[in-house]
Write a structure and sequence with these properties.
The chain is an alpha/beta fold. Strand 3, helix 5 (about 100-115) and strand 4 (about 120-125) form a beta-alpha-beta unit. The strands form 4 sheets. A 5-stranded mixed sheet has the order 4-3-5-14-6. The protein has a 5-stranded mixed sheet with strand order 11-8-12-7-13. A two-stranded antiparallel sheet has the order 1-2. The protein has helices spanning about 5-15, 20-25, 30-45, 60-85, 100-115, 135, 170-175, 180-185, 220-225, 235-245, 275-290, and strands at about 50, 55, 90-95, 120-125, 140-145, 155-160, 160-165, 190, 195-200, 205-210, 215, 230-235, 250, 265.
Length: about 300
């Protein structure tokens, strides 16, 4: 079996069309179709349902996809075991990360890796949504989430607790809430993905429904509105710690609840044969986060 054809199959499954796969791989659609037909003939099974308007995996294609991924990872691991010690990291490292952490943390980390490894290429997708890394061919997803290691194939990179914050101007005009009961009376800035704000009350998760004049689809927009004094926002430590240090935002601590202790996680499509470039990236990311300014007790930020 030609592993190049297996890679072709994985790309088609990821992008969802023969023409898109041809563009990504620099091939003609006719050659892609011919090579796919050859792979199907070798396997004795049809891998895709194909019409003039759509393409989808057959049950046989769905069954073959995880094996294809394993074959490709084994090939990449074999090449890296020979080449990485001789000439540094190589290949394409495909990452997805949230916008804020992607810009401020991930980009500097990969810039350093590229500088030290001329054979390494990085493909970074920034998105505040959750991307399915198993079907899109990504090596690792950096996610800000509340999860346990058993939830997914994941490793925790750093703590990243939620914090409430507002601009000094807002606090001068509206005061500072001290309980969740006070909080619901304030105008709050909501991220579209967060209908309620989570807190810990004792050992139980407590959700508070807030409202306000502004909501947005990205953390960047929520943060900008918060700095502008529109209202109170809930963001994670790494989204706002520099603004708090500079005095552009002030953290708010409520007496009847505690912040939810979410973290920054690295999520992988498989636990086996993690490429060297992924392991080195995660180590570099962890070192960057742990040697940067650490999360402090949020009470210390209250003037």
């Amino acid at each position: 079996m030609d592993l190049a054809d297996v890679t072709l199959f994985r790309v088609i499954a990821s992008v969802g069309s023969l023409s898109a796969a041809a563009r990504q791989l620099g091939l003609t659609p006719m050659l892609v179709s011919r090579r796919l037909a050859g792979l199907e003939a070798e396997l004795g099974a049809r891998l895709f349902h194909r019409t003039t308007r759509s393409l989808s995996l057959t049950p046989e294609g769905e069954a073959f996809l995880p094996h294809a991924i394993t074959l490709i990872e084994a090939r990449d691991s074999a090449f890296e075991s020979v080449s990485s010690g001789r000439s540094g990291l190589s290949g394409v490292l495909k990452i997805t990360a949230p916008n804020v952490i992607g810009h401020s943390i991930v980009v500097p980390v990969v810039a350093d890796l590229i500088a030290g490894n001329p054979g390494l290429h990085v493909d970074l997708t920034l998105s505040d949504g959750v991307i399915d890394i198993a079907t899109t061919g990504l090596d690792v997803a950096v996610r800000v989430a509340l999860m346990k290691p058993s939830d997914m194939v994941a490793t925790k990179v750093a703590d990243n607790p939620y914090t409430l914050c507002a601009s000094p101007d807002y606090i001068n005009r509206h005061g500072r809430p001290s309980t969740t009961g006070d909080l619901v009376a304030h105008p709050c800035i909501k991220l579209h993905a967060m209908d309620t704000w989570p807190f810990m009350r004792g050992s139980e998760l407590h959700r508070v429904r807030v409202s306000g004049p502004f909501s947005a689809s990205t953390v960047d927009a929520v943060r900008a509105a918060c700095v502008a004094g529109v209202g109170i926002a809930m963001m994670t430590y790494w989204d706002v710690h520099k603004l708090i240090e500079r005095g552009e935002l002030q953290s708010i601590v409520l007496s009847d609840v505690e912040p939810v202790g979410i973290g920054i996680w690295a999520v992988f499509p498989t636990r086996t044969r993690v490429p060297a470039r992924v392991r080195v990236f995660i180590d570099a990311l962890r070192e960057r986060l742990l040697t940067d300014i650490q999360p402090r007790r949020l009470t210390a930020a209250i003037p």
